[in-house]
Amino acid sequence: xxxxxxxxxxxxxxxxxxxxxxxxxxxxxxxxxxxxxxxxxxxxxxxxxxxxxxxxxxxxxxxxxxxxxxxxxxxxxxxxxxxxxxxxxxxxxxxxxxxxxxxxxxxxxxxxxxxxxxxxxxxxxxxxxxxxxxxxxxxxxxxxxxxxxxxxxxxxxxxxxxxxxxxxxxxxxxxxxxxxxxxxxxxxxxxxxxxxxxxxxxxxxxxxxxxxxxxxx
Length: 217
Hints:
By secondary structure, the protein is mainly alpha-helical. It folds into 2 domains: 2-69; 74-216, no CATH class. 76% of the residues lie in helices and 0% in strands. The protein is built from 6 helices and no strands. Keywords: Coiled coil, Metal-binding, Zinc, Zinc-finger.
């Protein structure tokens, strides 16, 4: 039958099967069309299933790649960020201290006595320890409300934002204003550093618990 000659190449298998199994000179047109329609439905279904498998494979590869990218980020990167913040703050503090020492009029903003700055003051160090204890208590109470990873990111982001704000302070500001700004920044940094260490400790504990649960199963 001529109709078989005009079918696309994807029909070649079906055409061959019909030619081998049927006497085309006696095959009714209705039966031929019914056979071709059945094959077309089957072929369409196969193509659709193949396309779905390809989409699932692409999605799986993309998901796997994202997971690998996350795993490739080493914990030490957070430590590097914190170390960078520490170096910047220490550098700034040394510069301010040298600046005040050159003027020869160092006055402690805490005890109001001459000869040292607030961060060398015994009273300030005592209060700093108390703040550290309070921050520790607050950290543990908040640990269940949000993920540890989010908190670590928040710590790093807040520190970098604070440093950027400090860099933008007008150079015409008075020494006293600069001292107050730095004082507030350093106090925030101490609190955030403490929280960061607490979060890391909590993460280690959770990872240990997870390993113990895995071993049970």
